[in-house]
Amino acid sequence: MIERYGFKWEIWTGFHTVPSKDHLHLHVLSADLCSPAMKIKKHYNSFHPKVGFFQSIDEILSWFAAEPSYFSTISELKKSQYEPLLKEDLECFRCECSIKNMPLLKTHLQEEWDKLAEKEKAKVLN
Fold this sequence. Notes:
This protein has a single domain (about 1-125), classed as HIT-like (HIT family, subunit A), CATH 3.30.428. The protein is about 45% helix and about 10% strand. The chain has helices at about 1-5, 40-45, 55-65, 70-75, 80, 100-125; strands at about 10-15, 25-30, 55. It has a 3-stranded antiparallel β-sheet. One of its GO terms (cellular component) is nucleus. It comes from Cerrena zonata.
């Protein structure tokens, strides 16, 4: 990352509480959420780190060691509890400001990302 882009950023790994596919699959994504694939509110909210639909791999792994067991915990994840989270209002995960629609959110996220990139590149140079 540093060699190609001039700074290093977070990569998120985790699972959706209500998977969209029947098979087990791990999501690995850049912590900018600026992807062209991020087209609709449901996509964005499904990865927003504070909404609760996306669970980091560390959170999931903690379930294996916790009481009750992982299997008890996973069985408590009710679709009816988590799917409404995908319909929540759009909010920037960095500054928590409300955004009216996806095009405005994507522009805002890009601006936030550009600010972060400048700040991080300056750190690398110093």
